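Morning run. Coffee first, then this:
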Amino acid sequence: QVQLVESGGGLVQAGESLTLPCAASGSIGSINAMGWYRQAPGKQREMVAISTSTGVTNYADSVKGRFTISRDNAKNTVYLQMNSLKLEDTAVYYCAYQGLVGYWGQGTQVTVSS
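And here it is:
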């Protein structure tokens, strides 16, 4: 079992920044991927950014150049630095862990206002 604890969500104005940390605990495998997904009202959940334990990262086109994912393997924590936030970034953001089995966090709300 892997537990994921997210934090850092909140209400910000367009153009501002926000960082979302996600700490994993439990049976963490040496080879894994951690990342962030989001789901806006009425829309499907979509990948935002992923980081693997081997150093590979991947971003959704909509966030490239604005969001940065990083990880501290010693702390089993992944961070999503979100800059230049837009109204359309408003969503519930979910942390995800993928090893032999996948796990989801409980989600944290990010609301961007004008």
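The mean pLDDT is 96. Good start to the day.
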